[in-house]
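re the bet — no i am not wrong, look at it urself. input seq straight from the record:
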Amino acid sequence: MLAVACCGAITGPWVGRFVRRQFRYFAPSHTLPFEERRVDPKLVQAVENGDLPDVVRQLNAGASPDSVSSDKDGQGETVLSIAAGSGSLPMVKLLVQRGADINATDFWGGNAVTSAATWGNDEVVRFLVDHGADVNADDDGATALGYAENQQREAKTDLERRRFQRIIDILEEAGAKDGLFGLW
């Protein structure tokens, strides 16, 4: 059925919805609408708390490494983005090792590298880039490069400015394009 629908033998506006509904579990998580992605609250909590042993327990119990957080408005981010933003390289490595989609997007379009760059986690940015992260993911009008550039401008110390410059260099070396789309 998928081959027939994809080849155009079955036409009509309902085909895309049918194919997505019937085959959604075979598609990468970032292709699903955010509200259709799996939410594992215990895993989200363990990642937010930085509790690596509990994250391992949750994953071993069947939690999805592509799980997302979700607030009352249905917005949120992936557990990989949460870990990347926290700067926990061991947790990021664990989630990637357990199959987390490195390019899964959050509600706004950003990915784990966007989160790591925003929070100044250069080692995490390097790891994600080395493992194929999309450095040009459009996060509601900006990219990881744009956030890093903005944070560098706003930095209060030379140490912070140098850290964000390292991130900028990593992202540009990986092919990041213009970081800002008129936000700042």
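see?? The radius of gyration is 18 Å. told u. also DSSP finds ten helices and no strands in the chain. so pay up
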